[in-house]
Amino acid sequence: MKLQFLVEEQERGERIDRYLARQCPDFSRSYLQKLLKEGEVFVNGNGVKSSYKTLPGDEISLEITEAKDPEIAAEQMDLDILYEDQDIILINKPKGMVVHPAAGHYSGTLVNGLMAHCRDELSGINGVLRPGIVHRIDMDTTGVLIVCKNDKAHHSIAEQLKVHSITRKYYAIVWGVIKEDEGTIDAPIGRHPVDRKKMSINERNGKPAVTHYRVLERFRQYTYVECQLETGRTHQIRVHMASIGHPLLGDQVYGPSKSPYKLQGQTLHAGVLGIVHPTKGDYMEFSAPLPLYFEDLLRKLRASS
Question: Is 138 annotated in the active site?
Answer without folding.
Answer: yes
